[in-house]
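Box S2. Input/output pair 1.
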Amino acid sequence: MYWRLILLNVLSGFINCSADINREKAERLMAETPLIDGHNDLPWQMRQLFNNELEKMDLNTLEKTHTNIPKIKAGHLSAQFWAAYVPCESQYKDAVRQTVEQIDVVHRLCRLYPDDLIFATSTDDILTAFQQNKTASLIGVEGGHSIDSSLGTLRMFYNLGVRYLTLTHSCNTPWADNWLVDTGKDTAINNGLSDFGKELIKEMNRIGMLIDLAHVSEKVMNLVLELSNAPVIFSHSSAYEVCNSKRNVPDDVLKRVAQKKGIVMVNFYNDYVTCQKTANLSNVADHFDHIKKVAGHEIIGFGGDYDGVTRVPKGLEDVSKYPDLVAELLRRGWTDIEVKAALGNNLLRVFKEVEKVRDSMSSVKPYEVPIPYADVVNPCRTMQGA
């Protein structure tokens, strides 16, 4: 009995030591390579909690959200795509205005906290922020309804600093079908993408806007993978074979993303991690392992979806917990190269390629033909011209 107790103490010490080593190594790797997260809904929380009146809160002490500055620092969050999200209910109404207001929130947060956040629109900006120990703050517009079927609006969003557009949220647009079509809860109206939707993909390539396939139907995933000249992203989606939610990415699409040299940034929402109300850090790591096994470590990234979901895994309660997930990947045998790829090198590669495609299309003229009026006619829309 005595020797058994000694053995148990030795084993316990070994396990704790191993955990400490993995955590220390995670911190070191994160000091060498920027952690870039694909999706965080803090701007939406600013709207919900404070009506976008940022003077009513202090991001250094805010505790109602998954995200604040101390948590960002503890989590080694080097770059974040902040979501400019507005609900599907705004479609055909004031979606553009509301989206511009959410874009404005990101700009104002960067101005209010210049020692910690720095506005970013490029791969160079991300690396510069990392060198300055600040969090590069990029913008993704979450939902094609936000552009009101207007390529002019898309281009102006780009000029305001938006660097990805999620083609749909959980509703169809007049030119793209959303993921609920695959569940039977919504009806396909575009056979994936309309002709205008296909032109929009080309225009996103031309201006250098990342195409985000989170939230779209599987048919849209495959059509865009055929049409796009640039790699695509899933800013916050997980592996369908691990959790059979249609918001996740099936294996055949994972393989096509790898062929396209794109990226799938793993979502932490419990319902997309375990398809249940509860989940833990290890369950999230299972998605990383599965994607790596099916399509390689080169397509994996982090897309936590913090502050946009109501349930997050035990052990990943807020943005301060990223190092614990990295430590778990190391415990599972991930190499330094694989971990650094998932942290940020994969996203940087994708982003650089999108910029390269943009530069190669500099002589291509903007697409100017508007969406057919019959496709968008509604009581809130006036006639669009000749």
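Box S3. Input/output pair 2.
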Amino acid sequence: MGLGENNVEKIKTSITGAMITSELNLAIQRCKTEGKVALAVIATAGTTVLGGFDNLEEIGEICQRENVWLHCDAAWGGAFIFSDKLRSKWLRGIERCDSILWNAHKMLGAPLQCTIFITNKPNLLASCNSVAAPYLFQSNKHYDEVYDDIGDKSVQCGRKSDAFKLWLMWSTLGIDTFTTIIEQTEDCARYFTESIRNKEGFMLYLDQHQCTNVFFWYIPERLRNQDTSEIWWKEIGQISVQIRTKLLLDDKLMIGYAPLPKKNVPNALRLVLTAYPLKTFKDMDFIIASIETVGKDQ
């Protein structure tokens, strides 16, 4: 957009990765004091590493009071919209957002690329992007003008029909199947978390999983029951990378790892479960056993 990084105000987050709403309010007031205008607040539903969800109800209230546009990056966690149970827990207040982005190719498993942008402001996209080029969009064609209107709403004029991927998946599987696979995937994340919570050698960063993300470490026997010094943590972070590499090279499984540098947290294993193809508790047991097998030799 050409705004520049200096015009982006970073808001502090909690240990779960969620935006601290009191800090957001302070940042908006500070902008006003400095004579600046708060253009938009970008909230997140399902952060990349921890799977954290911002409090959309509280953020929505602040944005409405301050007349600031609220956009929600729901690229990952937006799939929870298909489950009443998960929506009521994690996506409360999403209806207060002025715009939402969701990647159907992520948790739901639609073919890449399949990104949806939604806004509750009718005709906004057309008023922002339309150039009504007469060599493309004429009113006297043999088909309904609405089809041209869709093309004139986006920055790209010619592009692939990404929406067809979601439509085909939706019409084939149905919303009940979406609900089932999303809820089962979240159940698997819960099962994995509970399985390693008190299991020797495993250590969770958070007490509970978020979204379908589990952030954790495996501690080899030689490093257990020791003082957790800076040197100890550095080695644990290196072991996370080694475990991931070994699992991949042995054709066992692919699991990610990541640090949280702003919170001074070293690399940890990052289990992120997609809904399609469907996962089972047996799959979770296999992941745990594979990590133990590889990790004990580190």
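Caption for Box S3: Strands lie at 40-44, 69-73, 99-103, 115-119, 202-204, 213-218, 256-260, 265-272. The chain has eight helices and eight strands.
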